[in-house]
Amino acid sequence: MSSVQDTGPETFQQFPSNRIIVIHPGSFYVRIGRASDLLPVRQLHCIARKRRPEGKIYRDSFVPPSVPKTKELIEELEECRLQISHTLQSCMQSNGARRYATPPQQIAAFNRRSLPEAVSDGEPWPQVECDIIIGDLVLDVDPELPYNIHFPYKRGDFNIHTEVGGSISSVLNDLYTIWSSIIEYKLGIALIELVKYRCVLLIPDIYNRSHLKYLMSLLLRDLGFGDCFLVQESVGATFGAGIGSACVVDIGDQKTAISCVEDGISHKTTRLRMDYGAGDVCQALSWMFHKSAFPYKDWNENIPRDVILMRNLYHDFCHVNLDVCGPQEKTFLVDHPGDIVNKYTLQVGDECIISPLALFYTDLLKITGIKTTKIQNRQPSDPEDPFDAEFLRETGRKKEVVDLSVAEQQTETANEAQPSTNTEEDIVVDTLEGGPGDIVTLAPGQVLSLDAAILQSIDRCPNEELKRKMYSSILIIGGGVKVHGLNLWLQNRLALQIPYAYKTEQLEIVTSPKDIDPASTVWKGAAVMSCLESAIELWINQSEWNKHGLKVLRERAPFIW
């Protein structure tokens, strides 16, 4: 029988891609679309709920909130700013001339004299009559109205806290409301029809198993999709970029995640997540603008539209182009409902380069508090899935333990770095893990800079060949990477630090593969993946989930559980 007949329509029936919904939730935006769409629908990943009379006030910030500026903090920020400034002054422009910086006092003198220029009358605040508002429409809610604002994700994971709306059930309820509204009103699909649709959900590389269980139930039981499967973001990125293997660096709004992916599998030991992203860089920019007498005096980080304005200034003005030096004049509009539209002229200096370089000089990011670096750890078992790796670990031990007390003492000391040197256990479980628990934090306060984190992630690869492969293919994605020249700066920093043994012919850093917006690469990759023939065995349907629960997810998941 010829091989051509083997791949005939009898064996593989393509499920229509316009009936597969791909959901990529982020801390700031959520992207949802059909797998057949060129680009997903992007909406703010937030919800505003009308407060009950006498109800508690709770409003998540639209940017990681800045911490109180103590004398010590201001000294640290100032020291870091000067350090970056001196580094920039020691750089050359492309024509060989030395760079020069304009003193902040000179820029501040200009900005103090800069007065707003009225452009038009502006619009009143829109009339809000619903009890629940989702997505971008939340920006149309007058901050004076009695609404609580919730972002269900924070720093790349569930936003769980002790205030109103901070329980896991509240977060899942918010996710249901936001996602179902976008599917119904933006994609035009009635929720009752979802049983005929399939769903792919993107999950963080460093995940919490219990959260995945809740999300599977949300998709199959609550939203009512016919089938679904989960994909890790870094794996989605390699499919979106069309690269087989890469060290994936995802610079999001509130987190930067790094993972080495080889042939669709993210190596567990290489996963790192730092608690900083474009939102924190934005706060550093805001601090420097205000040091130079920002002409829009009423700017307030608690007003959503002011935050969006600062985010737009970050996207429009920030760059890492060493040929741009000296003061630059920029203009921007402040268009808030209920007020006249004002045009401001602002003079900027090196702060537009210094703020994105905070990813390499992380002391500047202390403006939003102490940061941490997280790694994936062994996780507690779930009663739904008793025969998991934990069970194998406990029952697969060697019988001939000579002296238990001595053995226990030895394991305690060795437990942190290498919990097991038992060859039988090596077969069934990952050995580079701590004790059962959750996501682990490496030395709190010691946050890795972007280049150091990439080097550490690659250094955690299991073999030399893989390390060499990763150094030659670094893929940078996420909304935070859209700063002109950032990739070149990173490339130069890494080139100086790569161990001599791995200096490959070319250190390649890819930022916008196939001309896709780097913020949508992950979404696109999951859409591509969902249409592959090999995806057939990944789908989990409602009845399987209801019958087997977590067990079926462990067996089918396209990542090592």
Low-confidence stretches: 1-10, 398-437
Described by the principal axes of the CA atoms, the overall outline is globular
Query: Count of DSSP E strands?
Result: 22
- The separation of the N and C termini measures 38 Å
Rg: 25 Å
Percent helix among the residues? Answer: 25-40%
**How can the largest sheet be summarized?**
8 strands, mixed
Total of DSSP H or I helical runs spanning 4+ residues: 18
Strand content: 15-25%
Average pLDDT metric: 85
Query: By helix and strand content, what is the structural category?
Result: alpha+beta
Task: Describe, in plain words, how this protein is organized in 3D.
The chain is an alpha+beta fold and 561 residues long. It contains 18 helices and 22 strands. The strands form 5 sheets. Strands 12, 13, 14, 15, 18, 19, 20 and 21 form an 8-stranded mixed beta sheet that branches. Strands 3-2-1-10-11-22 form a 6-stranded mixed beta sheet, sandwiched between helices. Strand 1 and strand 2 form a beta hairpin.
